[in-house]
């Protein structure tokens, strides 16, 4: 059964000025070091804040949604002086959670481009489309680092889904366009995710529906912790009628 882990305490550092879609904050931190932890005693330069320096601060949340409200930043003044480019900034967020054992999981990380888990970088879901990223959790403490960026203050969401199914049909199905009066003979794209650390072999997809003939597709293998979109041949039972849908 799936379960969800949420990080309720984050530490954040920022904001730092960045170029549009650049993300380079200009401070020397080895964020991909598996042993990285925030040093709360160090001040880091940032001209965005009053006083010119920032330190790590604690941020508590009630759920997976994280909203950062930066203190001592005069956004109107920055915009008047630098224009809209003066509002583009980024920060670093650090969080920890415990896992009772080494286990597969799915990460739902929305509104950020990537995240670092235990020193390894993964893609995230920047547009909030609901894409899930398969990972392996360590037994004990797991460390997460994200770098939210954008205009002014930042928000993102991050949750860990444990005990996922080994094989999952995920979002982003490529559905065909049915044309009224035509007989459809083409393909649909079915994305399948392997959430395990093993190669899964000899997989069969079976599709059927009210207006399409039953069809099967065999897949020789899907590599560990990965997803693949499979073309599956579809043929309508008859000519497409008014209001017929391509939903599978």
Describe this structure in words.
This protein is mainly beta. The chain has two domains: 160 residues, Jelly Rolls (Sandwich), CATH 2.60.120; 69 residues, no CATH class. The chain is built from one helix and 19 strands. Strands 2, 5, 7, 9, 10, 12 and 13 form a seven-stranded antiparallel beta sheet that branches. Strands 1, 6, 8, 11 and 14 form a five-stranded antiparallel beta sheet that branches. A three-stranded antiparallel beta sheet has the order 15-16-19, with no helix packed on it. The longest helix is centred in the first third of the chain and has 8 residues. The model has no long low-confidence stretch (mean pLDDT 92).
Q: Roughly how many Å is the radius of gyration?
A: 23 Å
> How large is the count of helical segments?
1
Mean pLDDT value: 92
CATH topology value of the largest domain: Jelly Rolls
Strand portion: over 45%
Number of domains: 2
**Spans of at least 5 consecutive residues with low confidence:** none
User: Could you give the count of β-strands?
Assistant: 19
CATH architecture of the largest domain: Sandwich
End-to-end distance, in Å? 25 Å
Order of helices and strands: EEEEEEHEEEEEEEEEEEEE
Largest sheet: 7 strands, antiparallel
Structural class: mainly beta
CATH first level of the largest domain: which class?
Mainly Beta
Helix content: under 10%
Shape: elongated
Q: How are the SSEs placed, and which strands pair?
A:
Elements: E1 3-6, E2 9-17, E3 44-45, E4 53-54, E5 57-60, E6 65-68, H1 75-82, E7 88-99, E8 103-110, E9 114-117, E10 120-123, E11 133-137, E12 140-146, E13 149-151, E14 154-162, E15 167-169, E16 185-194, E17 200-207, E18 215-222, E19 226-235
Antiparallel strand pairs: 1-14, 2-5, 2-7, 3-4, 6-14, 7-12, 7-13, 8-11, 8-14, 9-10, 9-12, 15-16, 16-19, 17-18
């Amino acid at each position: 059964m799936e379960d969800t882990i949420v990080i309720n305490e984050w530490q954040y550092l920022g904001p730092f000025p960045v170029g549009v879609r650049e993300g380079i904050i200009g401070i020397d931190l080895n964020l991909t070091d598996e042993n990285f932890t925030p040093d709360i005693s160090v001040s880091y330069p940032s001209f965005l804040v009053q006083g010119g320096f920032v330190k790590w601060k604690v941020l508590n949340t009630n759920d997976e949604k994280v909203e950062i409200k930066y203190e001592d930043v005069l956004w109107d003044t920055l915009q008047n002086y630098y224009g809209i480019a003066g509002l583009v900034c980024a920060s670093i967020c650090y969080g920890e959670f415990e896992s009772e054992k080494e286990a597969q999981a799915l990460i739902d990380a929305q509104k950020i481009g990537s995240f670092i888990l235990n020193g390894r970088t993964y893609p995230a879901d920047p547009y909030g489309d609901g894409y899930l990223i398969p990972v392996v959790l360590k037994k004990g403490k797991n460390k997460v680092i994200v770098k939210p960026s954008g205009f002014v203050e930042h928000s993102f969401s991050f949750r860990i889904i444990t005990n996922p199914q080994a094989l999952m049909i995920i979002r982003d199905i490529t559905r065909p366009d049915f044309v009224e009066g035509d007989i459809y003979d083409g393909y649909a794209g079915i994305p399948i995710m392997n959430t395990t650390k093993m190669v899964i072999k000899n997989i069969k997809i079976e599709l059927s529906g009210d207006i399409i003939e039953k069809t099967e597709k065999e897949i020789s293998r899907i590599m560990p912790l990965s997803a693949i979109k499979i073309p599956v041949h579809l043929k309508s039972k008859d000519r497409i009628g008014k209001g017929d849908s391509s939903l599978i």
